[in-house]
Amino acid sequence: MSTVKNASIQRVPFEILLDQKSISRRVAEFGRELTEDYAGRLPVMLGVLKGCLVFMADLMRTVDIPMEIEFVSAASYRKGTKPHNDVILGGASTVPLKNRHILLVEGIVDSGKTVKTILKALERQEPATVEIVTLLDKPASHRSSLDIKYKGFSIGNEFVIGYGLDNTQKYRNLPFIGRVLEF
Ligand code: IMP
Ligand code: MG
């Protein structure tokens, strides 16, 4: 077997911020809440790729009513831990969302630009309702007021990785949320 010697796959220093147990407990609570709130409404979970991947996979299995899933992809072309200004949407759902009950599922909300851009695009399709579900939120970083109905955890202005969240596309496969040190 050859040894991989690529510095780019070495891990950034991090510490565990939320372990698997804390995350799954919170996800189970969301499941109970959404099951109750959306009974009889056939909601559509619209996941924001790629950060929603792990959270949504776990979340959807805790929801005990019929529902559908769709995805939209958003990129803010972050370089490392520094955000870029424009949000580029792609791979939007081709399913008609008029009169549907949409749950916009995000891994993390930071400035709020990504969800705001998606909400604006969704409005044109005249859905019945749209609510945001995010595992993590950085309230101190919001650039304008944002109404998040389903929020897993509020965190400070720190950079986190794992459970679907990346740093330059890596670390999404960590099963917990880690806080990057020296950010
Ligand atoms: P916003 O548009 O500033 O709210 O940024 C949201 C997007 O930035 C998320 O969908 C993530 O892709 C990314 N992001 C923001 N903060 C973090 C973080 O701490 N770790 C990983 N990705 C982050
Ligand atoms: Mg990212």
Molecular structure report:
The structure is a single chain. The mean pLDDT is 91. The protein has one domain: Rossmann fold (3-Layer(aba) Sandwich). Helix 2 (53-60) links the parallel strand 2 (44-49) and strand 3 (68-75). Helices cover 20% and strands 28% of the residues. Strands 4-3-2-5-6-7 form a six-stranded mixed beta sheet, with helices on both faces. The longest helix is centred in the first third of the chain and has 18 residues, at 20-37. The chain is an alpha/beta fold and 183 residues long. The structure holds inosinic acid and magnesium ion.
- Describe the biggest sheet? 6 strands, mixed
Ends distance: 35 Å
Strand content: 25-35%
CATH class: Alpha Beta
Secondary structural class: alpha/beta
CATH fold field value = Rossmann fold
Small molecules (ligands, ions, cofactors) in the structure: inosinic acid, magnesium ion
The helix count comes to: 3
User: Please, how many domains?
Assistant: 1
How much is the average pLDDT?
91
The value of Rg in angstroms is 17 Å
CATH architecture level-2 label: 3-Layer(aba) Sandwich
Apparent shape: globular
Q: Total strand count, please?
A: 9
Order of helices and strands: EHEHEEEHEEEE
Provide the spatial order of strands within the biggest beta sheet: 4-3-2-5-6-7
Low-confidence stretches: none
* Helix content class: 10-25%
Oligomeric composition of the shown chains: single chain
Describe the structure concisely for a colleague:
The protein has 183 residues and is an alpha/beta fold. 20% of the residues lie in helices and 28% in strands.
